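Posted in: Structural Biology > Protein-Ligand Complexes

Title: Requesting predicted complex, dinuclear copper ion in pocket

I'd be grateful if someone could produce the 3D structure tokens for the following input. Sequence and ligand are given below.
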Amino acid sequence: MGAAGYWLYKHRRRPGDEEKLAKPTPHSTAIEVFWSVGPLLACIGLFHWGVVSYMNMRVAPGDSVQVQVRARKWAWEFEYANGKITDQLYAPVNKPVRLIMTSQDVIHSFFIPDFRVKQDVVPGRYSTLWFQATEAGTYQVFCAEYCGDSHSNMLSKVVVLPPAEYDAKVNEDDTKGVPLVDIGKKVYEGKACNSCHSLDGSPRVGPSFKGLWGKTEALADGSSVTVDENYIRESILNPNAKIAKGFQPVMPTFQGSLKDRHIEGFIEFLKAQK
Ligand code: CUA
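-- Reply #1 --
Done. Output follows.
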């Protein structure tokens, strides 16, 4: 801007300029061709480079490992080909991984800074992303689209493992031989129930779990319900069926993402919150 201002002033119109302009301007075809064809070739080169890079970024190799990603306020969920569901993304090293992502509520954005990939995750449609991790390790995942109160806590990890360990992890039944109450604790933390339901009695987006079990809960429609196994199960699978008085119907469903054993574990965990 400074240079432009300087030249504007330096080459301002002065007396006698008309005579100078009346003379013919020298012309060089060679220079004109150079500065026209040169940039044209540069643009074609850049465009080709851009298209190749873009296609490489958008289109996953055909032999990619596919993982479903579901976003909801405020947690990520990953499902593998065999039906295994995890809260962290497990990926094999040196193999392309394609994520097929959707949201169950608002727009989120799946972001792995270490892999230089980020993609919006939108309700009602699928967006995709792929990467190939070249080193085993643990990498941070962020939500990069503001999605409500606990947006900044909507975190996860990508755990990149050697192929054999990856296969073992994806095929392991991590609920086997684990006490129900511990499964419930994992659900509470892994599904980010903790971002809305406290354990210390303080109300957040939803009612606190402290002392909830066995209580008679007043509902928004004026009726009431006893907090028992069936009420909790219904509230997990169909959260809007019965809304506790004083709260908004904003909880997403966990239908399909929690198995019976997870729900039973969660109920045991809730019973323990006296
Ligand atoms: Cu999800 Cu921000």
